[in-house]
Structures are given as structure tokens and as C-alpha cells.
Amino acid sequence: MNSVVRTARAPNLPHRRALTLPSLPAWLAAGQWLVTLLLCAFLIVPVVMSILAGLTVNYFQGVASGLTLRWLGQVWTQYHASVFLSLEVALATLAITLVTGVPAGYVLARSQTRLSRIVEEFLVLPIALPGLASALALLVVYGGFTMFRTSVMFIIAGHVVFTLPFMVRAVAAVCASSRLRTLEEGAASLGAGFFTRFVTIVLPNVRPGIVAGALAVVTLSIGEFNLTWMLHTPETKTLPVGLADTYASLRIEIGSAYTILFFIMTMPLLVAMQWLGVDATGQRSIRKKTRASAAPTNPPDQP
């Protein structure tokens, strides 16, 4: 009798589900996310705190002292000339690197000689050297020309030396593609001359590399400090040099407000690089185009 009752009541008892632990790949993925978030916090929190310092009335009292745009206004009044000078230097540097870097990248990508590799290594050399060393070399060679030394062209020359490798590498990476070589050979077989091929075939197809190189050149030129600090004069003070001056004033609110101004100028360039889908060598756009051209197309429906 008791066994019958236990058998009848057994289906009414709650069913206990077995607990399953996450698999090893799940633990690894969670660990990667945790490390990534901690690293992002380590990098982003100081930037956020610096921005807040430039917007607070008193840094030592924090946000409780109130928010203000006073420091931004003061920085703009004192250093707006440095902002416009930095833009002038960046645009002039971009123009020179476009005129010289695009043809150089094309030639280096097409040439397979040992001389071209040596020239490429010399072009990349300024990146490996500290900015102070490059500036010192310019001072030793051209410092005796007073008019050139005291003009903004001296800083532009230094920026061209520093940023030209980024334009050359970005363009050369695109020009090395076999697809572009095939298009050129096809145009040459139809009677197109070198200039016609370069304008109508090469330049449109290397546009991702040119855009990537241009954004890198402008961003690096605006933010370059070491080389510019060595080459500048009181009349040619750019944005990073002015930033160093504001922090030397021992007023952290002014320095942080200057950082906000610097942030406003550089962030659109970085966002543009992401939005256009290009990296420092233009390879991301190349891969996208390759995948798009290799994607199978659906044949039209047959009647």
C-alpha cells in the first residue's frame, strides 16, 4: 500500500535540473572581455577626468565646485593663433606629401630592384629615430639659413620628413595589388600612355591608400611635439607646444581646457578614418573591395 502511494506521488515532485558549468571557450571569451574592458577603462578614464578638469571651476574641489567654460575661453583667447598655425602646417605638410608621396609610393611598389628597397628604408628611417634627433639633424644642416630657420617653412620641412613615410607606405600597399597591374596592362594594350594610365587608372584605384595616408599625415602633423618643440620659435608656436606651455603654467584647469581643444581637433580625423574604413596602410579597404568583387552574384531567374 505504501509503495503504491509513493509511486502515485512521485510524478508530482519537482524535477531538479542538473547544473552545467560554462565551457572552457566561454571562460576564455569572458576573460578576454574582462581584460579588454579593464584596458579601455585604464585608457579612457584619465581622458575623461582631464576633460572634466577643464570644465570645472576648481579642479581640487571637483565637479562640486561647478562647471564653467571660462578656461576654454581663456585658452582660445591666448592660443587661437597656435590653432590656426597648426592647421596651416598640417595642410601644407599634406600638400607636399601628396605631391611627393603618391608618385614615390607608386614607383617603389612597381620597382623590384635593390636600390628601391634601399630608398624605401631611408624613407622609413625618420620614424625609427626620435623626433629630437631628426630636428637636431635639420638644425645642423639648415640652421645657418636665418630666414628659413625662423619661418614656419622650417617646421613644415620637419613635418614632411616625419610624415612622408606614412603616405608612401599607404600608397605603395595599394599599388602593389595585382589587380591594379592588370588594369594598367589592359589600358597600355589599348594604346594609353603612362600619364593617361596614371590619371585614369592608378589614381582612382589607389584612392583608399591616399585617403588613409592623408588622414594619418594630418593627424600626426597636428599632434607632433618632439620635433616641433625643437624647431619652433616664439612666433611659430604650434598646438602641442602651446599645450606644453599651459601645463608649465601650473594651472591644471587651463592645461585640461587646452586638452579639450586638442581633442576637438583630432577626434574628427580619427572618426573619419574609422568611418571611411581605412587604416594606416589602406589594407582594410583593399580587403573589402576584394571580398565585394569575389562575392558570387545571383544569376537572374530563368523563365
UniProtKB/TrEMBL annotation:
InterPro entries: MetI-like, MetI-like_sf. The keyword Lipid biosynthesis does not apply. The keyword Cell inner membrane applies. Coiled coil: none annotated. Belongs to the binding-protein-dependent transport system permease family. It is a multi-pass membrane protein. Pfam families: BPD_transp_1 (PF00528). It is found in: Cell inner membrane; Cell membrane. This is ABC transporter permease subunit. The chain crosses the membrane at residues 33-60, 81-102, 122-145, 152-174, 210-231, 257-278. Keywords: Cell inner membrane, Cell membrane, Membrane, Transmembrane, Transmembrane helix, Transport.
